[in-house]
């Protein structure tokens, strides 16, 4: 179709492939992708710490759940573009901006998943931990985390799908590095093939993280579960 149109705005597969090979061979893709991954990781760590504490409190305390749940539900409906814009306005162009933008987009689904997971913790096991006076860290390690694992992974998947979009938007708005910056540079140069090449590369890394890393972790931590056979 691109060949028949002969339009510079509709590049053919060969052009996109050449751009893709170029950014990979030159190493520019990996350098900017590493920066973007670092920003997402930092935002994720902040979101995880806040969401874990908030989710546990909400799951164990009815009043805390009633207080925080409306704000979390509102946070789930806020588009990533809004978080990116607000953080750029409030904090300017800095590492704080990207970290908080990602954390704000990740925290609502993660906290909600953790709160739902806490409700499923076996009451008898909770009584046993109380009888043996296990420490908070021991309860977290041996009771809560094993129960919360599926909910955590689900929250991480949903949150990261939003976090990637937010970090790219923040980078487009003014950062001088990262995948979003490169997409903005290719757009400014009207290089559609370059935009598509960076998009394909970025999507490939996301798929690798989803099915390779997160999927691998899920298979490892749930390996003890029995699989029903027909």
From TrEMBL:
**Membrane topology, as annotated:** Multi-pass membrane protein
Can you tell me where the transmembrane regions are?
A: 40-59, 71-93, 142-160, 166-183, 195-214
Q: Which domain of life is it from?
A: Bacteria
**Keyword Transport attributed:** yes
Which keywords appear in this protein's UniProt record, sorted alphabetically? Cell membrane, Membrane, Transmembrane, Transmembrane helix, Transport
Q: Name one GO biological process term.
A: transmembrane transport
Q: Which Pfam families match?
A: BPD_transp_1 (PF00528)
The record's listing under InterPro entries reads: MetI-like, MetI-like_sf
Domain named ABC transmembrane type-1 is located at 33-215
Q: Where in the cell is it found?
A: Cell membrane
Q: Which PROSITE patterns match?
A: ABC_TM1
UniProt GO cellular component terms: plasma membrane
**Chief location:** membrane
Family note: Belongs to the binding-protein-dependent transport system permease family.
By what name is this protein known?
ABC transporter permease subunit
Organism source for this protein? Aliirhizobium smilacinae
């Amino acid at each position: 179709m691109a060949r028949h149109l002969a339009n510079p705005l509709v590049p053919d597969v060969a052009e996109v492939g050449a751009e893709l090979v170029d950014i990979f061979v030159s190493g520019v893709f990996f350098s900017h992708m590493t920066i973007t991954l670092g920003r997402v990781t930092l935002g994720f760590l902040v979101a995880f710490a806040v969401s874990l504490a908030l989710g546990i409190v909400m799951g164990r305390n009815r009043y805390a759940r009633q207080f925080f749940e409306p704000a979390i539900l509102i946070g789930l409906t806020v588009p990533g573009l809004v978080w990116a814009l607000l953080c750029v306005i409030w904090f300017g162009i800095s590492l704080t901006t990207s970290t908080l933008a990602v954390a704000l987009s990740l925290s609502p689904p993660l906290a909600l998943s953790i709160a739902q997971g806490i409700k499923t913790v076996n009451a008898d096991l909770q009584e046993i931990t109380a009888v043996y006076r296990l420490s908070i860290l021991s309860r977290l390690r041996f009771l809560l985390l094993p129960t919360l694992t599926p909910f955590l992974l689900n929250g991480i998947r949903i949150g990261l799908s939003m976090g990637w979009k937010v970090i790219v938007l923040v980078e487009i708005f003014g950062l001088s590095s990262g995948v979003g910056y490169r997409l903005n540079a290719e757009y400014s140069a009207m290089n559609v093939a370059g935009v598509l090449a960076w998009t394909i590369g970025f999507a490939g890394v996301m798929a690798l993280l989803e099915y390779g890393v997160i999927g691998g972790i899920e298979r490892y931590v749930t390996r003890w579960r029995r699989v029903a056979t027909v």
